[in-house]
Amino acid sequence: MSPEEYREQVLQLVERIPAGRVMSYGAIAEYLADVSGRCSARQVGTIMARYGGGVPWHRVVNSSGRLPPGHEQRAAQLLAEEGVQLRAGRVIMQTTSWYPEDHTSGR
Question: Which residues form the Methylated-DNA-[protein]-cysteine S-methyltransferase DNA binding domain (predicted)?
Answer without folding.
Answer: 6-84
